[in-house]
Amino acid sequence: MIKKLLGLTTLSVLTFGLAACSGEKADTSSQSIGEQLDYKIVGIDPGAGLMKLTIDKVLPEYGLDEWEVVEGSGAAMTAALAKAYKKEEPIIITGWSPHWKFAEFDLKYLEDPKGIYGDAEDTNTIVRLGLKEDHPDAYKVLDQFQWEPTHLESVMKLIQDGMGPEDAANKWTSENSDLVSQWTEGVNKVSKEKLRLLYVAWDDVIASTHVAKNLLEGVGYEVDVVQVDAGPMWAGVSRGNGDAIVGAWLPTTHADYYEEFKGQFEDLGPNLHGTNLGLVVPAYMDIDSIEDLLE
């Protein structure tokens, strides 16, 4: 029976399944990967579609009945990865890209022969119904906002290196004026009209949301950004409590929310192509496929 652990604190996630912090390193050469990790995969927040897909489909379809996915947060997951990587210890995480961790560490996706994680995803811009009529210039900025994974990763790296999200967005937009000009082409200046952007606390979404905030503030809007879980994020825009989302992962990660609220929002389409989902390990680990976890 597949099990999962609920309500773990960040500290719990950081220490779960990793070797002791002191003393001699245990000899695990005769152990399987599952035994070395106590059959645990370090995950993120439980509301993420990546978690649901891993727990409900990937584990059962590959016959990984002994394995568990530890729920936590994106920040806890990357901290656990950094701790294991520093010691060259084994770890498996639920991962996605674009993400700064691929620039920081030498990582690889485990092959998914059954194709359960699907092809590359997009991140879409979702706006509330009526935004075009109420704030046509904001609508135009959001509709024209399209960039590449390398752009997003640059902003994420600035934040990871210690810069606040607003400062990172401001620095990046000031250094990429050509792109900003494309996104704001034909947009009129407004005077202190208020907008609210909703986002989940994933590193890529934090970065993209603050860039969108910077763009909108650049044409005169007063923008409030509100961090919520995935469900409330979709419900908020669908019910008019938020104006837009720029980090909707589709067609897989947020598929359930898309269907639940379909007809209650407007989908402006992808603002970024080429995201990926899957199980990720450090390159020094001698496994290449999800099927290797059966050994």
TrEMBL record:
Keywords: Cell membrane, Membrane, Signal, Transport. It comes from the Bacteria. GO terms for biological process: choline transport; glycine betaine transport. InterPro entries: ABC_Gly_betaine_transp_sub-bd. GO terms for molecular function: amine transmembrane transporter activity; carnitine transmembrane transporter activity. Residues 1-19 form the signal peptide. It is found in: Cell membrane. Pfam families: OpuAC. Residues 32-174, 195-293 form the ABC-type glycine betaine transport system substrate-binding domain. SUPFAM superfamilies: Periplasmic binding protein-like II. GO terms for cellular component: ATP-binding cassette (ABC) transporter complex. This is Glycine betaine/carnitine transport binding protein GbuC. It comes from Pseudoneobacillus rhizosphaerae. The gene is gbuC.
